Amino acid sequence: MFEVLLNKIKKKEALIGIIGLGYVGLPLALEFLRKNFTVIGFDIDEEKIKKLNKGESYIKHIDSNFIKQAVFSSYFKATNDFSKLKGVDVIIICVPTPLGKHYDPDLTFIINTARTITNYLRKGQLVILESTTYPGTTEEEILPILCETGLKVGEDFFMGYSPEREDPGNKKFTTANIPKVVSGVTEKCLTLVETLYKHIVVEVVPVSSPKVAEATKILENTYRAVNIALVNELKIVFEKMGIDIWEVIEAAKTKPFGFQAFYPGPGLGGHCIPIDPFYLTWKAKEYDIHTRFIELAGEVNTSMPYYVVEKTIKALNAQGISIKGAKILIVGVAYKPDVDDTRESPGLKIMALLEKEGARVDYHDPYVPILPKTRKYKFDKISVPLTTEKIIQYDAIIIVTNHSNIDYSFIAEKAKLIIDTRNALKVKGLRSGKVWKA
After folding, report:
1. Do residues 206 and 187 lie in contact, with contact meaning Cβ atoms separated by under 8 Å?
2. Of 94, 147, 189, 272, which one is the catalytic site residue?
3. Which H or E run includes 162?
4. CA within 20 to 30 Å of 275's CA: 130, 136, 214, 380, which one?
5. Range of the domain at 266
6. Percent of the chain that is helix, strand, coil (3-state, to 5)
7. Is 180 in the same domain as 313?
């Protein structure tokens, strides 16, 4: 089984099946296609399947042309018929791993996916988990489910873990040129995983076990979460001292060693940084360890939307305006600049908090024309245009996401009051009290 599958992978004859065609799964599928593999994409979202099979992209930074070419040349097909898993040689799982209501890991998607795979798992297949999760998930949660089939890992089928490192919208780093950490449950499993990814990425980094690979991903994002929490806290401290945190960071990053710049903001967004550290804190409790440092960072970051709202209320009061009934425009609801991804966006939390205070809230985002329903929020709103007639209607404008294609000078000129959470306004000569940094 091993030699047959290894040769298929080496010759690019292995049929690749990718489960979950979102911000991780779709770019991965396209990279395999670019390297001349044949790919079947699996998803439960019928709209995604219809669009892909028409050659259309539903993710802003992914061009439709290559999808169309792959579909029409029969190298790629999307489907919700999971019985086709039986025919693929490699199954890669790229489904969400969100948090529950109480910040505990929600493995529903990957557990359900594993159970679906068991219906079709056969000898000679390689299964790889890419979804971010806590150390131990691959071997403690997913592997036992697959072994319920009676097949033996390392002999009949093979399994590994390789954490995704996607950064949506990043033009410098893409799937192909980001080193890939790889692992396997057994030596043969690792060999297969390593050989597979060597075809599509610039470098593979093999590690000793799936636990190490899982911990690597958690470390990467916890590192960022902790450092962002630090500058968020310092922003509040320095503000009390009359010091601009942004100026401090610009000065500090001139040091050529021992410092990496992180920037404050209205809260964390995206599917990784706001979530992954909590996966580790949850798992640590199994070992009677209380991760105080990580949990404190989480508290700081999750408090930032509340800080922005408090700052907005204070700024409005200074203008003699009550938050109740105030008209407020949120500029940017994507979780970071120049993408259409609203997952865990602090902008949504800020909108909900403002409406709870009685404000009337609209938003503008060139990449999000209609607010999608999320696990937490269901707003019935569409993006309003940034025109003079619109801007002057609002009592305050809050800049949450600093998209590069927004004219901030125009906003600064027309708006009555601006709360800038991203240091987007670098316009001199503004009326005192018109711009508040938050």
Report:
1. no
2. 272
3. none
4. 380
5. 246-437
6. 40, 15, 45
7. no
Domain count, the chain: 2
Question: What pLDDT was estimated at residue 431?
Answer: 52
Q: Which residues pair with 57 in a beta bridge?
A: none
Proportion of the chain above pLDDT 90, given as a percent: 79
Average pLDDT over residues 127-138: 96
The values of phi and psi at residue 429, to 5°, are: 80, 20
Same structural domain, 274 and 186: no
Q: Angle CA(194)–CA(198)–CA(201) in degrees, nearest 5?
A: 125
327-331 and 396-399: which strand pairing? Answer: parallel
Cα gap 88→207, rounded to integer Å: 26
pLDDT exceeds cutoff 70 at 152: yes
The reported pTM is 0.90
At 46, which amino acid appears?
Answer: E
Amino acid at 195: T
Is 216 inside a domain boundary? Answer: no
DSSP state, 86? G
Residue recorded with tokens 């396997």: 184
Active-site residue flag, 272: yes
Mean residue pLDDT across the chain? 93
Q: Give the total residue count for the chain.
A: 438
Tokens of 146: 């697959």
* Tally of CB atoms within 10 A around 254: 8
Question: What is the per-residue pLDDT for 430?
Answer: 54
pLDDT for 436: 87
Q: What's the pLDDT at 428?
A: 46
Return the residue matching tokens 């799964």. Answer: 25
